[in-house]
Amino acid sequence: MSLARTMEGLMAGNSVIRKMFEMGQEMAKNYGKDQVYDFSLGNPVAPVPYEVKNAIISLLENQDPHEIHGYMKNAGFDDVRTQVAEHLNSRFGQNYHKDNILLCAGAAGGLNILMRCLLDEEDEVLCFAPYFTEYKSYVSHYKGKLAVVPMRADDFSLNLDAAERMIRQRTKAVILNNPNNPSGIIYSEEELLLLTKMLKEAEERVGHPIYLICDEPYRELAYDGREVPYLPNLYRNSIYLYSFSKTLSIPGERIGYMAISDAVEDGELLMQAAIITGRTLGFVNAPSLFQKVIGQCLDVKIDLGFYDRNRKLLYTELTEMGFTCVPPQGAFYLLVKSPLEDTESFVKLAEKQHIILVPTDGFGLPGYFRLAYCVPYEKIEASLPAFRALAEDCRNWESEKEAEEER
Amino acid sequence: MSLARTMEGLMAGNSVIRKMFEMGQEMAKNYGKDQVYDFSLGNPVAPVPYEVKNAIISLLENQDPHEIHGYMKNAGFDDVRTQVAEHLNSRFGQNYHKDNILLCAGAAGGLNILMRCLLDEEDEVLCFAPYFTEYKSYVSHYKGKLAVVPMRADDFSLNLDAAERMIRQRTKAVILNNPNNPSGIIYSEEELLLLTKMLKEAEERVGHPIYLICDEPYRELAYDGREVPYLPNLYRNSIYLYSFSKTLSIPGERIGYMAISDAVEDGELLMQAAIITGRTLGFVNAPSLFQKVIGQCLDVKIDLGFYDRNRKLLYTELTEMGFTCVPPQGAFYLLVKSPLEDTESFVKLAEKQHIILVPTDGFGLPGYFRLAYCVPYEKIEASLPAFRALAEDCRNWESEKEAEEER
């Protein structure tokens, strides 16, 4: 074998999201884009705020091209790091300064940097099911272990009893994704206070910091006026990760940041390590022009209504059709329970209706499907007859199966 | 220790280039930018070609923002991959097609992706001294070993005898950086034919492919009409890595590509692995706007004269002052031999003259210093008196030392 043996697992577990996305692309070629209802990929379609284009043009017109396209300190432009720190301070009452901020290639880049910094072979990272499926790979690159806290049956709250039992000496960190992909749940302050209390006790027990990695690319997508609690205010050893992919609809540009406050145990050392790791993992620095762009767009608000309309329409209609859905509170994902026990047959029936959904087995949640409703509203409207037919097909499939079993 | 134990080595060996760069910044603050001659960092200062700005503005004006800032296939935009393939075909007579091309975050991003794809624990990668110091980290992230082929004394040609002896069963790849950083040498076709002949024989001996990773961010910086041979034309199992950092003076933007031709053994598998690895290492995709930009700038030529003038002035003047320099053929680095046996004292004498050089011990080349002459011409002119004083200081230092020894 020419490749590393350890690539086998990685390739076998290749993202089902991407597979479904590519199937959708294929279908669109065969049947026409209008005839395919692709809910596979979290590709933001809310308008890119005009401030993004304005910022780019103003940077091109007014600044030295060597400054905006050139190398800077590996941690990012100092002025932008200061802007990010001040933004977080004014919004969440923190005391960040520029040296607490690392500009990185989205939250995914930041997570890889952290895994490299924290994990020796066999070290563990905890996360809660359902979880973003890529965490497994992020951890395995550095030979760590992702320990997935199982859900209580059909209960999307944090299973803290199980988590507490699973924390051991080798547990270096917990990743929490809030709002959650794929469930669309927002963990409440009450729940997070219980989590952080448990973690503080666990830290005393194991005698070293257990970093709480706050993976929050969906922070701005919180509906019905819900608040997403700022975890660094609740737990000292929090490492905050943010991405502008969803807020500014620029996921291709790979821009986000990591914030490690002075309160974090060994925080300064960890920041130094993260800067060096970011460079040596080949990121070198976050893309430079977009560092400057987000510096000018920190207060730009997303048009939340854009996704909220989709959320309401899809949830209401699917529920009415008889599908069981998890009420979505944040992000742009809707979880639908498979109406059939045999989920593979459900995928096939959906495909027959040209509906592309992502099974969430890989997210630690078998029996469910994720719909990314970051699509044009008209697309959802147009998909409703297909969903209705799918509901009907499912009922027929069940009764045919029953009839077959009776024979 | 909160951090991974394996971070200790990485942090201890933190880039001396960056350390010197930051020292230069500090000095500039204290003495004024004009009074500091900083040759530490390979930060391209040739003008950013106007085509870059034009491409960005035309993309912003004419294309759907969701297309230019959004997700695409992890390998990159299909149209840009096709453009890159066609560019390489017309230039080097290859037969690339889009599926041979992966757009990645510069050559550094591509190298990390390849190391993850190829290396199990203890697998080896060969490189030739002097070598780009970051290779060590790229390999160690995935628990591989960098085996450095030593130089023959003061001979900057490839030490093929030693290389041949060092290739073993666990050797997965050889990295060759041409033009070379830090030496400024361009390996000739004759030399490379000997290398590839040796590698083909070694492949037969070990019974598996030994990939030749062609790390060529400096390809366009070849002076005096020298040609940089295209290695994939000489060796089947070549993996070609390119970056636009130097060609377009946009190193902050992190954009480059990897090309794996159909001829490469297990090449299709390797490309698949690279795409998945790029995603899961947290790159996700190369920055999207700049994918489109380089698609429009593939034939843009750098103003080579910009660096060539610097090269000639610096080489001529330093040689006249009595410094021993390696005649620079490519890239924008000049190697100067330490006039003192005690290199630390030389660094201190240089500092006294506000000259910032990088010792090349970390590049596998003790006793030398790297000058990155990618600075304004006027800077080099202004630095000459300081170099003259340094040469004088070195002579005094030697004679004082002799006098001391006689006492």
TrEMBL record, chains A, B:
PROSITE patterns: AA_TRANSFER_CLASS_1
Domain named Aminotransferase class I/classII large: residues: 38-381
Keyword Transferase: yes
Enzyme kind, highest EC tier: transferase
Keywords: Aminotransferase, Transferase
GO molecular function, one term: pyridoxal phosphate binding
EC number per UniProt: 2.6.1.-
Required cofactor(s): pyridoxal 5'-phosphate
Signal peptide (residue range): none
CDD domains to which the protein is assigned, alphabetical: AAT_like
Similarity comment text for this entry: Belongs to the class-I pyridoxal-phosphate-dependent aminotransferase family.
PANTHER family, alphabetized: ASPARTATE AMINOTRANSFERASE YHDR-RELATED
Protein name per UniProt: Aminotransferase
